[in-house]
Specification:
By secondary structure, the chain is of the alpha/beta class. The protein has 4 domains: 8-123, Response regulator (Rossmann fold); 159-310, Rossmann fold (3-Layer(aba) Sandwich), CATH 3.40.50.300; 317-427, Helicase, Ruva Protein, domain 3 (Orthogonal Bundle); 428-484, Arc Repressor Mutant, subunit A (Orthogonal Bundle), CATH 1.10.10. 44% of the residues lie in helices and 12% in strands. The chain is built from 20 helices and 14 strands. Strands 2-1-3-4-5 form a 5-stranded parallel β-sheet, sandwiched between helices. Helix 4 (90-98) links the parallel strand 4 and strand 5. Helix 13 (321-334) packs across helix 15 (358-372), helix 18 crosses helix 19 and helix 19 (454-461) crosses helix 20 (465-474). The structure holds adenosine-5'-triphosphate. Adenosine-5'-triphosphate (ATP) binds next to helix 7 and helix 15. One of its GO terms (molecular function) is sequence-specific DNA binding. Residues 143-371 form the Sigma-54 factor interaction domain. It holds the Pfam family AAA_lid_14. Its main location: cytoplasm.
Length: 484
């Protein structure tokens, strides 16, 4: 390591406690430390050419630290800046990185880690900083939640922004893996290229290779013309391989070759094609167990697992639930459904729920609340009834919860719904709204059971294939990529 011990560090934070702690910790390692509680003093020091490194807070009385970043970078492009913030959203992490921060540290942080980051920042080579993206203040946050688990994820995402590293996202179903994959793309350097997703569990196994790599005319029966694969479609962008644990062995071997050699051939083709895609993979399965069972190639795992991101189940970050609920209620409101709030007792109950279906389950519940209940404030009774109704389904239609038939369950829901409107009537269009509520899970489950095979799903449902296709479109079910 270079001689960094005489470096001067400028610290700006309006919290005196933090200033003291940082002074002590950094002073102990031998740095010189100057602290201030406001942005203007920091700016003065920087513009006078002082300091070798800046550590700044975001929210300060006179100015937002993030707004200071571009100005500092302009006059002193080489000055390293570490941003610390208790305002912990993905946007803060991303903005800090976009505006040229060396590192972003969500508060509270580990002092040892901060000291390590400082030392890295001072010794890192002064390369031209990565191109900064346009930043859009009004941008909608794609990921909600400020739990420490989510903050760690934002931090990783911010770090990955300037890279093309392969990422493996693991987590239970509905924890937001696809959303994270999209954020990696949308905030990364390939954001102007395509984002292409493919779900291994939703495509018949025998078609996966040709879906991924494309095929030549005549490569197999039915291949009447050349078709581009997802690798080709994702050229210059990101390829999201969802449910990678379901990839058949031959496709695994082919994928491994692409990752090793950077080239692939189409099914039936001979000429190697250079691949220019960033790979993000995801799975809810335990890949190490699949490796042990001989169902997943270990060498492929290591090629994919360059940067692992583990999304924790919702029950491990229940402090995020109120914010997620507000977000989904607002979303429902923006779609024209009545706006609602949840009272505190109901909220507590929701925070205690185990959420086996994670954020997706929560999102669906909030949508039901917005669509099916007339009261503006949702109380504990409604929540209890809803959570009971979401109990695992039994295997026979007609034998629903508490021994009552499906029809009886539906009737009970509808009775409540009508009753909730007292003497008035619910908003017009009840028929379509209710039928949709039933159709959506039914079709979704049928597709899941047939691994996304629409012909089989149509047979199972007893529907004409075209009718099924239309319903999938109308209900906005995503089939080829993710089974919702
Ligand atoms: N942190 C979050 N903030 C806002 N919405 C979220 C968050 N996490 C998940 N969601 C929403 O929950 C739903 C499920 O997320 P997503 O499809 O990304 O999960 P997944 O882990 O990929 O699920 P699966 O493994 O079943 O494919 C989506 O509608 C997504 O928008």
């Amino acid at each position: 390591m270079t001689m960094t011990t005489t470096a001067t560090i400028l610290v700006a934070d309006d919290d005196r406690g933090i200033r003291t702690v940082l002074s002590q910790a950094l002073g102990r390692v031998g740095y010189e430390v100057r602290t201030t509680g406001n942005a203007s003093t920091l700016w003065r020091w920087v513009s006078e050419g002082e300091g070798d490194l800046v550590i700044t807070d975001v929210v300060m009385p006179d100015e937002n630290g993030l707004d200071l970043l571009p100005r500092i970078k302009k006059i002193r492009p080489d000055l390293r800046i570490i941003v610390m913030s208790a305002q912990n959203t993905l946007l803060t992490a991303v903005k800090a990185t976009q505006r040229g921060a060396f590192e972003y540290m969500p508060k509270p942080f580990d002092l040892k880690e901060l000291v390590a980051v400082v030392s890295r920042a001072l010794s890192a080579p002064r390369a031209a900083s990565s191109d900064t993206a346009q930043d859009d203040d009004e941008e909608k946050l794609p990921l909600i939640g400020r739990s420490s688990a989510m903050q760690e994820i934002y931090r990783t995402l911010a770090r990955l922004m300037g890279t093309d590293l392969t990422v493996m996202i693991t987590g239970e179903s509905g924890t937001g893996k696809e959303l994270v994959a999209r954020a990696l793309h949308d905030y990364g350097k390939r954001r102007n290229g395509p984002f292409v997703a493919i779900n291994m569990a939703a495509i018949p196994r025998e078609l996966i290779e040709s879906e991924l790599f494309g095929h030549e005319k005549g490569a197999f029966t039915g291949a009447t013309q050349r078709a581009a694969g997802r690798f080709e479609q994702a050229e210059g962008g990101t390829l999201f391989l969802d449910e990678i644990g379901d990839m058949p062995p031959e496709a695994q071997t082919r994928l491994l070759r692409v990752l090793q050699e950077g080239e692939y051939t189409t099914v039936g083709g001979r000429v190697p094609i250079r691949a220019n895609v960033r790979i993000v993979a995801a799975t809810h399965r335990d890949l190490t167990q699949l490796i042990r069972q001989g169902m997943f190639r270990e060498d492929l795992f290591y090629r994919l697992n360059v940067v692992p991101i583990r999304l924790p189940p919702l029950r491990e970050r229940s402090e995020d639930i109120p914010e997620l609920i507000r977000h989904f209620l607002a979303q429902a409101g923006a779609e024209g459904l009545p706006t609602k709030t949840i009272d505190s007792q109901a909220m507590e109950r929701l925070k205690r729920h185990r959420w086996p279906g994670n954020v997706r389950e929560l999102e669906n519940l909030v949508r039901r609340l917005a669509a099916l209940y007339s009261q503006e404030v949702i109380g504990i009774d409604v929540i209890e009834a809803e959570l009971a109704g979401g109990a695992p389904p039994t295997d026979v239609i007609g034998a629903g919860i508490e021994g009552e038939g499906l029809s009886a369950t539906v009737e009970r829901h509808l009775r409540d719904y009508f009753a909730n409107h007292g003497d008035g009537l619910p908003p017009a269009g009840v028929y379509d709204r209710v039928v949709r509520e039933v159709e959506k899970p039914l079709i979704s489950l049928a597709l899941e059971a047939t691994r996304g095979n629409q012909i089989k799903a149509a047979q199972l449902l007893g529907l004409n294939r075209n009718t099924l296709r239309k319903k999938i479109r109308d209900l906005e079910l995503q089939v080829s990529r993710t089974l919702k």
